[in-house]
Amino acid sequence: MLVERHAETSTHPRGRGNNVRTMELFRTAGLEQRVREAAFALAGNDGVLQVDTLTGGQRRWIIQDISAGMDVSRVSSSNWCLCSQNDLEPVLLSRAREGGDIRFGTELLSFTQDEDGVQAQVMSRETGETYAVNTEFLVAADGPRSPVRNRLDIGQSGPGALFHNISVTFRSKALKECVGPQRFIVCYITDPQGEGALLPVDNEERWVVHIPWFPDRGESLEDFTSERCAAHVRAAAGVPDLDVEITGKAPWHASKRVADHYARGRVFLAGDSAHEMPPTGAFGSNTGIQDAHNLAWKLAAVLRGWAGPQLLGTYEEERRPVAVATSTRASQQAAEEEHPGFTPATGRNDDPADLMTVALCYRYASKAVVGASPDRPVVPDDFRLGGEPGSRAPHMWVTRGGDRISTLDLYERSFVLLAGPEGREWRGAAERASRDLGVPVEAYLVGDGPDHDLAPEPDADWAELHGTAEDGAVLVRPDGFVAWRAPGRLPSADRLLTNALRTVLCRD
């Protein structure tokens, strides 16, 4: 059951950047194509541009290619996508309604918990009716000011607010002539009279501009009248008589904070309630989506009896370090992009991990991984996906039953064991481990022979890509992360695999 105090999905075009990993998750949910259809208006936009004014003579690309020239198809079955929250949420909602109880206009008033469950009081905002909901677990995705986090008395770490903006939506038919042929993700305007960040909504007449707001200098929200905002847009364009119709205004705060804990008992935090970071790099919403993805399979495993309740403790073990590292990278990105209104307290990091590395290469070291080193950095310095335990499993195009799929398409529904062309005994070991533990494990043999399940494409080396041998194996969790890896044929394969599964599921 989902309760949402608002009456409908978001109407403001924000949270637009869905990175490669998030799009992989939408793909495995069967939604990638629908998301791309919802995002068609911005399909050709890329890069971060900086200008003095849109019609001025100074312009440079801060980032011209979000993928940094990488052939993304070599490392993923998906690619990043610009889809604003107001376009994305209806797609997700239609899928969620297929199996979920979705209650808009419903507010969580209070909750208590004990060892048997959570008792929540909720209210219909339309009728005022209050009623009780008894549930096994509560997940709070209730934003940066999170009432649930406050009730749990969970603190936050980090410098807090970094800068403030007013997000202004507007219409202008003539602005696209000022923009010209550049199809950017965001354009920063440096002229003091029009300083801000311009974002296209449809590349035609709907736009968003983020205007710096300085409440510490005494500026109030009321100071940002429609007349002032329209004048700001005209100054940014460098066109005094530009047609501008202001359609909406909303304040937002760029902050860097991470919750000190991600759970208390049966109540969990996810998304902005767990972490805040600047919007640069589009890390915030993606980190939140990936929080939920990490937590979902663990809740399912516990509720279905696959795992011990200690598995839920690995949610914080895995996701909090990712949020700490990612929020730091987002702040570095804000400095790199010279985001209007932001004055970094420290110097720029001239060699941060690139956006693709942050999106795909973060790593876990927890009780739910066997063989991961806790001493290595959460985000490596360079792009590295080699099948190491705790990393996102590599992508590889294969043929199964005449269909071309990615190995990533195999994950999400159960544990998966991939074995090399000479690793036949691993298939039997997986079947026996699955039976003995009562945990679903799908096993696939990769190779070109008649008894192989997945045929790799020419010149593809499964063993090299997964960091093992032709007779090795890789166990992948339902969230697509490597849980354990066998370097080759091993004695007592049944026992080793069963013990690895038992450890990952916290059943020891």
TrEMBL record:
Gene3D superfamilies: 3.40.30.120, D-Amino Acid Oxidase, subunit A, domain 2, FAD/NAD(P)-binding domain. The keyword Flavoprotein applies. InterPro entries: FAD-bd (IPR002938), FAD/NAD-bd_sf (IPR036188), RIFMO-like (IPR050641). Keywords: FAD, Flavoprotein. Residues 326-350 are annotated as: Disordered. Pfam families: FAD_binding_3 (PF01494), Rng_hyd_C (PF21274). Its cofactor is FAD. Residues 1-327 form the FAD-binding domain. It comes from the Bacteria. SUPFAM superfamilies: FAD/NAD(P)-binding domain (SSF51905). This is FAD-binding domain-containing protein. It comes from Streptomyces venetus.
